[in-house]
Amino acid sequence: MANVNIFEELAPYARLTIPGSGVTVGQLNYVTQQDLYYTCQATFTSGVVPANTQLQFFQAALGDSATNAGYTSGTITTAQSDSRFPRGQAAANQCFVGTSMGFSVNTISAATPDSGFTVGLFADPDDVYSLAQNFSWDLTIGRGIQRIIGPLAAYPGNDSVTVLQNQPGTAQAATGNNVSTVGTVQLGKPSCGFTRLVVPIVFPPLINVTINAQNGSGFTLESAATVSVQFRLTLRGYLMTMPVG
Q1: Between the CA of residue 182 and those of 11, 162, 240, what are the distances in Å?
Q2: How far is it between the farthest Cα atoms of the chain?
Q3: Spatial separation of the C-alpha atoms in residues 55 and 230, rounded to whole Å
Q4: Domain count for the chain
Q5: pLDDT grade, residue 189 (50/70/90)?
Q6: Do the beta carbons of residue 37 and residue 194 sit within 8 Å?
Q7: Nearest to 141 by CA among 205, 92, 91
Q8: What is the structure's pLDDT at 181?
Q9: Considering the domain boundaries, does residue 237 fall inside one?
Q10: Domain carrying residue 208
């Protein structure tokens, strides 16, 4: 593998074939190490999360309509995504190999990215757990590879403050929310690392990659208030190019 000392992390996958190409990971050329992130939005009226609510990640790129990510209007900026892969397709000579990933869940004050929304705190920590545990994600690469993985809660991110929590040794709130102080946690805590993937997620050249998150049965959040929620998926990995010749 070229530059093996730079990405020893990829060495175990050197013989992994890039879908649709016949090229292995070991034959790719290194460009840069980077994160690839994408944010979806969903609004839950009166705290009700309908059954089979689906979030579709990486189905639009920078500058595309934000309605592709669940927002009511506006365009996708770097606040929502850094992806330049329209419909999840890398360019003809590019390939992204994601080796670890994480989700984060936040409330926001508006359902459009152009309205100056602010990221907020959930009124009840149970709501973060409910969303993270009830939504599971799956992966589809082209028409040949499909994997149903697991709940978002098993893949914590670390990029923002999201939830109120009770500190050890403090009394529980009388409201029953078990909240007495503001805590800087979300699906884990700010210092947590992303989850290492057993098998990397590969964005092959010109092949659609679809990552969805979906719940099954409907449920109601504890706060029971209408809330807009941002779900962000971040992949940490490597941008590569295909070998020449």
Answers
A1: 42, 10, 41
A2: 69
A3: 10
A4: 1
A5: low
A6: no
A7: 205
A8: 42
A9: yes
A10: 28-241
